[in-house]
Design goal:
By secondary structure, this protein is an all-beta fold. It contains one helix and 19 strands. The strands form five sheets. The chain has a four-stranded antiparallel sheet with strand order 1-2-3-4, with no helix packed on it. It has a four-stranded antiparallel sheet with strand order 5-6-7-8, with no helix packed on it. It has a four-stranded antiparallel sheet with strand order 9-10-11-12, with no helix packed on it. The longest helix has 5 residues. The protein is globular, with a radius of gyration of 17 Å.
Length: about 200
């Protein structure tokens, strides 16, 4: 599949095909270790037109998190066996952003934290104002979630979702929001017209 995603971890390669299957293969010989088959949405092709990025796979403390583009759920699987630990619904625009402090973060028009143990929502930031809705992928650090909107980067505490800082891209830098990439040497912002690096 064109949207196939891979993750290499602990001697296994994990694959989200977005064709109804998440699978693990032995990285040494390519033999299958396990398959997890999930029910696909009624119209899997719709996922290709919602603007959602391809499905990500995240692993933390032997728990694999997957949010396939052809499913309306987010799944937590046991890393070694593929056994389902939990699954929870998500909206059509939500995709995985990252994990920190036993929380899984989903991004879309809103920003949401789910607890790693059961997938229940811990906190959510949502605004009906278009300029305060998500605009590209963000960055999750140990203590904060950096989340781009159309005109700002909003920085939230990972534990309680408190807004701890705002960077006004439009007013201060004449930039619109886009995808963020974090690095110890700075922060990269990529939008449709510019690629900008900010100092630490």
């Amino acid at each position: 599949a064109s949207s196939l995603r891979l993750l290499w971890n602990s001697g296994h390669v994990y694959v989200s095909t977005e064709l109804g299957t998440v699978a693990a293969f032995d990285a040494a010989d390519g033999l299958p270790v396990w398959y997890h088959i999930y029910p696909r949405t009624a119209n899997p092709e719709k996922a290709k037109t919602t603007g959602r990025l391809s499905a990500m796979i995240l692993i933390h403390e032997a728990i694999l998190i997957a949010a396939p583009g052809d499913s309306d759920r987010v799944y937590a699987l046991e890393q070694q066996t593929g056994e389902t630990l939990w699954s929870q619904p998500r909206t059509s625009d939500q995709q995985l952003l990252g994990m920190a402090k036993d929380r899984v973060f989903l991004t879309g028009k809103s920003l949401e934290a789910r607890h790693l143990s059961d997938g229940q929502r811990e906190w959510q930031f949502f605004s009906r104002a278009a300029e305060l809705q998500g605009q590209g992928s963000g960055v999750v650090t140990h203590d904060a979630v950096w989340w781009p909107t159309a005109t700002e980067v909003l920085i939230f505490d990972t534990i309680d979702g408190q807004l701890i800082r705002r960077i006004n891209l439009l007013r201060n830098h004449q930039l619109q929001g886009g995808h963020l990439v974090g690095h110890p040497d700075g922060l990269l912002l990529a939008n449709p017209t510019h690629m900008t690096v900010f100092s630490p």
